[in-house]
TrEMBL record:
Pfam families: DUF1275. It comes from Mucilaginibacter gilvus. The chain crosses the membrane at residues 21-39, 59-83, 95-114, 126-150, 184-202, 208-224. This is DUF1275 domain-containing protein. The keyword Transmembrane applies. InterPro entries: DUF1275. The keyword Membrane applies. Keywords: Membrane, Transmembrane, Transmembrane helix.
Length: 225
């Protein structure tokens, strides 16, 4: 899934990357919501919460939500910087490095949550920070590899792009181009697997709690094939 980038990718490769990355995002987001009452793969809610705390002048919460926003940014930045720096030597290794780091972070969450987590406020914030940074890594990498086509954590952006492309495809003056149709297929795949991942994440977290985070690295390993 990660051996080719942008215009060199086939529809099959994009669909595989879209389904796996969106499935992971869905699992992580719902598992985070169920366990911490916080979104971990979507940061729009954190921006809204930070704005709310600006109004109430809650300095601690302002710094916390700002920190989470910056962690997502840093994850995306690190992925992009790594790919840009090492793609000339080995595109596959450059693409794989952020995924390996994401796997390590999620394994840390799985191990710590399963064996050491005591539900303190500090622990909650640290675990959320790890998952947000991991999602930033994934989002930045997937966006670069797919040339901006796949956005596995931003449903607002997804629906915006999907609406525009469906309108373009069905417009009377538009030629029914296969390129547009393929982009629509990819975006619908992201939507479907994000929802499926959310359902799976919620169901299995209720049964196995943090052990569900052991399953996510397996999916990420498949992305490395």
């Amino acid at each position: 899934m990660l051996r080719h980038a942008k215009h060199h990718r086939t529809l099959k490769q994009n669909l595989a990357l879209a389904s796996s990355s969106a499935f992971v995002s869905g699992i992580i987001n719902v598992a985070g919501l169920v366990s911490f009452f916080a979104f971990t793969s979507s940061i729009s809610g954190h921006m809204a919460n930070m704005a709310k705390n600006l109004v109430t002048q809650n300095l601690y919460e302002i710094v916390l939500f700002l920190g989470w926003l910056l962690l997502f940014f840093c994850g995306s930045f690190l992925s992009s910087f790594t790919v840009k720096s090492f793609a000339q030597h080995s595109a596959y290794r450059a693409h794989a490095a952020p995924v390996v780091l994401e796997i390590l972070l999620l394994l840390f969450v799985a191990v710590y949550g399963s064996h050491f987590y005591e539900e303190t406020k500090l622990e909650r914030e640290i675990v959320i920070s790890c998952t947000i940074f991991a999602m930033g890594l994934q989002t930045g990498l997937v966006a670069i590899v797919s040339g901006g086509l796949i956005k596995s954590t931003s449903l607002a952006s997804l629906f915006t792009d999907l609406g525009a492309e469906v309108a373009e495809y069905y417009h009377i003056g538009t030629k029914k181009d296969r390129h547009i149709r393929n982009r629509i297929f990819v975006r619908l795949t992201v939507l479907a697997f994000y929802a499926l991942g959310g359902a799976v994440g919620g169901f299995f977290f209720n049964k196995y709690e943090f052990a569900v985070f052991y399953f996510v690295p397996v999916i990420l390993l498949l992305m490395l094939l």
